[in-house]
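Retro notes (design track)

What went well: tokenization of the new backbones is finally stable.
What didn't: we kept losing track of which sequence belonged to which structure.
Fix going forward: every design gets posted as structure first, then sequence, in one message. First example under the new rule, 214 residues:
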């Protein structure tokens, strides 16, 4: 997932507004107690998300894939007082930990945390979205996109994480492609060809695809 020299990444993080005690606590607990801690958004990406929210000033954000709540807290911190983050996750084993982090953040009033299959939950939501962050099972990126695209307001942003997939998207002829890599290749191509959006793929962390609804 590291696309630049570790020393250069450390320099970038050193010159990025520092994590506070809560975010450091979430990082430590995630690495100590949860499988696949590399799924955590982390310092650099978390601050990028927070600043984008502050700049875009969305009223409603949908996050597909809460994990341990790091990215959700970062985005909720950027919201205006009347803003709302709806965050969805299927893993109920993390619920107690995540709700604890949300309570410590003091942002519970802005966060609507729901457990369940996002493909089933999204159709039940009545909101329209100004920003969507997709960071869940890669095989369903396209179904998630198709579910939300018509409900994103004009000018709204759809972000998808891990779209460079540790560089696996660079496929050589004859190479065997695993299902997740193929799903991300298909997603990136679909967004690039979708006339309803303009997009840019950013090499931040493991790759962020940003699509703006026209």
């Amino acid at each position: 997932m590291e696309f630049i020299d570790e020393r250069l990444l450390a320099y970038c993080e050193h010159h990025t507004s520092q994590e506070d005690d809560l975010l450091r606590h979430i990082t430590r607990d995630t690495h100590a107690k949860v499988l696949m801690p590399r799924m955590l958004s982390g310092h650099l990406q978390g601050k990028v998300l927070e600043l984008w929210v502050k700049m875009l000033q969305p009223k409603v954000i949908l996050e597909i894939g809460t994990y341990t709540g790091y990215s959700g807290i970062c985005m909720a911190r950027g919201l205006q007082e009347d803003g709302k983050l709806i965050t969805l996750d299927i893993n109920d084993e993390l619920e107690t930990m995540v709700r604890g982090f949300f309570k410590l953040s003091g942002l519970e009033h802005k966060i609507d945390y729901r457990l369940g299959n996002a493909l089933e939950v999204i159709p039940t939501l009545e909101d329209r979205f100004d920003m969507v962050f997709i960071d869940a099972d890669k095989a369903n990126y396209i179904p998630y996109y198709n579910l939300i695209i018509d409900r994103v307001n004009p000018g709204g942003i759809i972000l998808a994480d891990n779209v460079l997939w540790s560089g696996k998207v660079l496929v050589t002829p004859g190479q065997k492609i695993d299902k997740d890599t193929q799903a991300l290749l298909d997603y990136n191509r679909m967004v690039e060809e979708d006339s309803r959006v303009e997009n840019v793929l950013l090499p931040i962390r493991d790759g962020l695809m940003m699509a703006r609804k026209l």
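Added context from the reviewer: The mean pLDDT is 96.
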